[in-house]
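Notes from the pairing session

We agreed to fold both candidates in a single pass and log them together. This is the raw record for the first candidate, unedited. Please don't reformat it; downstream parsing expects exactly this layout.

Candidate A
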Amino acid sequence: MAYYIMKFVSWLACLFSMESCNGFGKVLGKLTWIVVPKKRKFMAYDNIIRCLGVDAGEAERIAKASWVQFGPMLMEVLRYPELIKGDYIKKYVTIDGLEYLQEAIDKKQGAVIATSHSDSWELMGAALAQYGVPLVGVARKQKDSAMDRFINEYRTLVGMHITYTSGVREMFKMIKEGWMIGLITDQDPSLRDGIILNFFNRKTNCFVGPATIARSQKAPIFHGQITHRSDGGHHITIYPPIYVDQTKDKKADIEKATQQVMNLLESHIREYPEDWFWLHDRWKSVRNIGLD
């Protein structure tokens, strides 16, 4: 039933303009902010203050803006059937650095695109696919099978190939075939799957997936981020490729490349703090072992 409800809501959203839907999304985001648990809000405030050195009032403003953007992002996903018509999405989402990806595509060279939960990250994947990037979106399987079916159907609709986080063999196969593996790299992984690095001058458990895959396949890592434009659209920035060293010290190679990715992410967050999802408990694992 939930799947058909979402399809109906999507149909309704497609009847209205993107501007109207974004306005509704912002209202929705502000209303849902009220029910976010206080414990989660205070955790976000504390992390913003520690990372950015701002006062409590500014931390609250940033955290709220970080949450509110979920509303417009939801509306954008619901309007995928409209966004892919004609060249609309290329006007709504512009890109710098597409030439870096195009060079790899022309060489039939697979790659990893490392991004984060920043601004409309779902739209970033859709836009890249619509620009002709052979993109594999790596998704977590949703607990609700209806919602899992809906979101992956819409991701496929815009041109992405979807695999689950468990599909490591498929990722390796497809990167060899020239596909680009999109990975979200900013969440706190298990200590077993991460490495402790520096992020905002704090010991932080960091996801090593992009560097591990890239090193194994001798493929580049492209760091990419999406940001809001003043006219209501979005802009994607793709950074020059990062190549993982191939020395005898595999761990050091992966650590170096992962730190490069984290440095780019930190710079982006400092420039666009409202875009990053501060409500995620980013330092939970290091806090649990007494490092934070």
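Candidate B (folded immediately after A)
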Amino acid sequence: MSERTTAGSADFDPDDFLVVPARTFEDLRVGEVFRAPSRTLTDAHAAAFQTVSADNHPVHYDAEWARKRGHPAPVVHGLQVLAFTAPGATLFPHFIGEVFISFLELSCTFLAEVHSGDTLYPALTVTALEPQGDNGIVVTAATIHNQRGELVLSGRHKYLLRRTA
């Protein structure tokens, strides 16, 4: 190895190694969409979430119990579905990393059951930009569709950002 390789490059700065160019609050636009990669849920995902959440209701793991109560299969935990709207599942935090202050709030409505084998398509769409002095609030619509194009979750997130980097 050359000395340059072992000592590092004077031209490389890890702080400049960005996935996408950094943006400010003012660079965001209403209507911008930040998608997450699609995910096909498996029984292993549901079992892992059940372990972490300690939610042991049989609707989530007992196929016979679920069928007897009108569900075609065990139902994936709603909070697990909601987790797919996490901003970190998209490129959004890479765009706002230097100006992000906090995740302020979220709300959602579960519109349809999700089952193992379903593929989910999460997205965050900027719906409002509210300047507030040196900071600003970004409001996004959080949506998840399944492989049949059905909207299974609809919600809203709010983030607080600095208006300058």
